């Protein structure tokens, strides 16, 4: 790292404060290669200011329900590990609209199903629409499938 670079680089504490995340979060992001740092001669992390935008991108994407794996996939699509700009965000987030609409639909269904659970607490695999949302025994035939099968 040159002297000039050192002035434009941020320590992990400064970077975390500016990014609004914990230093442990930064280290985790770095372990996933979502953000990168360089090391000083004393083996301390230093971050380019431009990496702040990557963290902002990660946080925004997470807030709409994307996993870090999906965020990484999106960031890895940018050429030369470019820092995402406004156009990148618009392009990538447009592709997530369907996903958000699907989440809203699922939450509405959950809201309807939870009426039968209020005050119940059985969490029965056979009866509970919340616990058994995927209807795990649907392929076994209609109706209850556990403990009721004919010999
Ligand atoms: S908790 Fe009993 S039906 Fe869901």
List the helices and strands and how they pair.
Layout: H1 3-8, E1 9-11, H2 12-19, H3 23-31, E2 38-39, E3 45-48, H4 51-63, H5 68-76, H6 86-94, H7 97-113
Antiparallel strand pairs: 1-3, 2-3
Helix pairs in contact: 4-5
The structure holds FE2/S2 (inorganic) cluster.
InterPro entries: DNA-bd_dom_put_sf (IPR009061), MerR-type_HTH_dom (IPR000551), MerR_fam (IPR047057), Redox-sen_tscrpt-act_SoxR (IPR010211)
Domain HTH merR-type: 9-77
Keywords: 2Fe-2S, DNA-binding, Iron, Iron-sulfur, Metal-binding
Profile the largest sheet.
3 strands, antiparallel
Structural class: mainly alpha
Beta fraction of the residues?
5-15%
What is the third-level CATH name, the topology of the largest domain?
Multidrug-efflux Transporter Regulator, Chain: A, Domain 2
CATH class (first level) name of the largest domain: Mainly Alpha
Span of the ends, CA to CA:
74 Å
**Unreliable stretches:** 147-151
Roughly how many Å is the radius of gyration?
A: 23 Å
Read across the widest sheet, the strand sequence of neighbours is: 1-3-2
User: What number of structural domains do the residues give?
Assistant: 2
**Percent range of helical residues:** 40-55%
The CATH architecture of the largest domain can be named as Orthogonal Bundle
Pfam families: MerR_1
Domain HTH merR-type: 9-77
InterPro entries: DNA-bd_dom_put_sf, MerR-type_HTH_dom, MerR_fam, Redox-sen_tscrpt-act_SoxR
Protein name: Redox-sensitive transcriptional activator SoxR
